[in-house]
């Protein structure tokens, strides 16, 4: 494989922004990929994959390359040299890249791979927390979280069917497969930029991880219902709810960030979803007015996102230990306030994209033991394991309010 200088330099520029300026990897890539209009799909793919790989294996590669933060440019090139050597790619003889004998890189790799925190490239605190929470299963989950996520689309059934979507994508040379047990999912066989396709512009699909596609269905909605999506964000699950409700009934999508709800409205327009109204939570009045009024409530709670490391490997370096307890406390508060929106006989789903029991089943157990929780009973819950499914880690609990 011949390495092109401008592509490698672009990857190093991106790593500089991610590692030294704490920018989010996906946002950085979106910008960096705009640098040169002449880059084709392969070039862009090379930059994105190289950057994601080096972000994913940052700790391991840094140990091998013997470099530390803040990462100078020569040190970022050293990380790149480790990446290339471990993939059997000849490191080019450029003045920016200080030679490291490949025997040394491979020897250090073998030695460090015996120790989990290096092999899986993870901060000490996160490794300790994961092992304490999940015991032996942590090994498997961690290994799965370090594999690249497949690209999964959710067919928008307001406009198409998964089968028709597959055919439309095939016409544009995008090969896909249907996924058993995920009725709306269409998975790409090869990574491609789907956002530039005509079918995307027409609103025939959204990119949504397969595990995430389980959440809206778990809420058991019907077209006649009033549904509140209390933490709607940019509306990944709101749009799915709209499709499941066949564009009927009413969905109230709330969030504390107006910007996210604006994006939701843009996506709803593209999807042809007309049964959604958005409400910014700028005072508690916004949700207090809804107490006892909804048939269904979704609390897709803010969480550590530990289940999504496959897609966002930089989370390993961005997440801080004190944030974990803060977010757990916030989830408990949201359960207290938003559960009151459910009317007697109604139902609610609490979901996270985390695999930590403290954010999931333990959170629900604590809620059920409170005065507010006493109005609810747990119908069922599901822990979605990245190791077992190959998709994101998720948790969902369906609770019903006593009539
Ligand atoms: C897991 S994300 C939601 C993702 C979204 N449901 C989707 O499917 O795309 C959690 C959301 O909760 C929002 N949030 C945080 N604190 C909140 C609060 N007190 N009330 C409502 N939403 C909140 C965040 O802004 C974020 O958009």
Automatic annotation (TrEMBL):
Keywords: Methyltransferase, RNA-binding, S-adenosyl-L-methionine, Transferase
Keyword Phosphoprotein: no
Molecular function in Gene Ontology: methyltransferase activity
Superkingdom of origin organism: Bacteria
Domain SAM-dependent MTase RsmB/NOP-type residues, every copy: 141-402
EC number of this enzyme: 2.1.1.-
Binding site for S-adenosyl-L-methionine: 255, 282, 300
Family recorded in the similarity comment: Belongs to the class I-like SAM-binding methyltransferase superfamily. RsmB/NOP family.
Protein name in UniProt: RsmB/NOP family class I SAM-dependent RNA methyltransferase
Organism whose genome encodes this protein: Dokdonia ponticola
């Amino acid at each position: 494989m011949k390495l092109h200088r401008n592509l490698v330099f672009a990857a190093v520029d991106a790593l500089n922004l991610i590692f030294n300026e704490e920018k989010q990897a996906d946002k950085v890539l979106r910008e960096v990929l705009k640098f040169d209009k002449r880059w084709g799909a392969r070039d862009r793919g090379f930059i994105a994959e190289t950057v994601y790989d080096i972000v994913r294996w940052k700790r391991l590669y840094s140990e091998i390359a013997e470099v530390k933060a803040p990462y100078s440019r020569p040190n970022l090139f050293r990380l790149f040299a480790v990446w290339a050597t471990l993939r059997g790619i000849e490191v080019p003889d450029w003045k920016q890249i200080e030679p490291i004998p490949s025997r040394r890189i491979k020897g250090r790799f073998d030695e460090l791979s015996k120790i989990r925190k290096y092999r899986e490239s993870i901060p000490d605190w996160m490794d300790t927390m994961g092992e304490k929470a999940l015991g032996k299963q942590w090994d498997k989950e961690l290994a799965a979280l370090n594999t690249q996520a497949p690209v999964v689309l959710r067919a928008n059934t307001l406009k198409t069917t998964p089968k028709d979507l597959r055919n439309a994508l095939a016409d544009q040379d995008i090969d896909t497969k249907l996924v058993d047990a995920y009725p709306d999912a269409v998975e790409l066989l090869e990574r491609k930029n789907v956002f530039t396709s005509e079918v995307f512009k027409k609103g025939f699909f959204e990119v949504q991880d397969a595990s995430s596609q389980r959440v809206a269905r778990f809420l058991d909605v019907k077209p006649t219902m009033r549904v509140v999506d209390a933490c709607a964000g940019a509306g990944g699950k709101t749009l799915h709810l709209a499709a499941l409700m066949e564009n009927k009934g009413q969905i109230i999508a709330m969030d504390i960030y107006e910007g996210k709800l604006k994006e939701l409205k843009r996506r709803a327009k593209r999807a042809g979803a007309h049964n959604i109204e958005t409400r910014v939570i700028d005072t508690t009045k916004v949700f207090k007015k809804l107490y006892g009024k909804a048939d269904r409530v979704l609390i897709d709670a803010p969480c550590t996102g530990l289940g999504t490391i496959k897609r966002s490997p930089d989370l390993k370096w961005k997440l801080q230990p004190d944030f974990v307890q803060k977010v757990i406390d916030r989830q408990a508060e949201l359960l207290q306030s938003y559960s009151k929106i459910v009317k007697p006989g109604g139902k609610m789903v609490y979901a996270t994209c985390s695999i930590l029991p403290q954010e999931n089943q333990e959170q629900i157990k604590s809620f059920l033991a409170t005065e507010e929780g006493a109005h609810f009973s747990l119908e069922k819950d599901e822990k979605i394991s990245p190791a077992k499914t190959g998709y994101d880690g998720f948790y969902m609990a369906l609770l019903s309010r006593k009539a």
